[in-house]
Amino acid sequence: MTTALPQHPTPHPVTMKKPEKPDKPAHGKIDVTITYAGLTKPFTVKPDQTVQSLLALALTTFCVHTNPHTQSLFSTKGELADAQTLAAAAVVDGDHLLLRPSEVKGGQSRGSNYSVTSCARRRPVTWVAA
Amino acid sequence: MNGPHPKASGGSVGTGEAAVCRPVLQVPQTVLTETFAQLRQCGAGRAECQVLWIGPWADPTVVTAVVHPKHLAHFGGFVLDDKWLTEFWFAMGRRGDGVRAQVHTHPWEAFHSPTDDAFPMVHLEGFLSLVIPDFAAGPVGLDQSYLAEIGADGSFRGVDAFQRLRITHVGEGSSGARNLVPLSEDISRG
Question: Does the ipTM surpass 0.85?
Answer without folding.
Answer: no
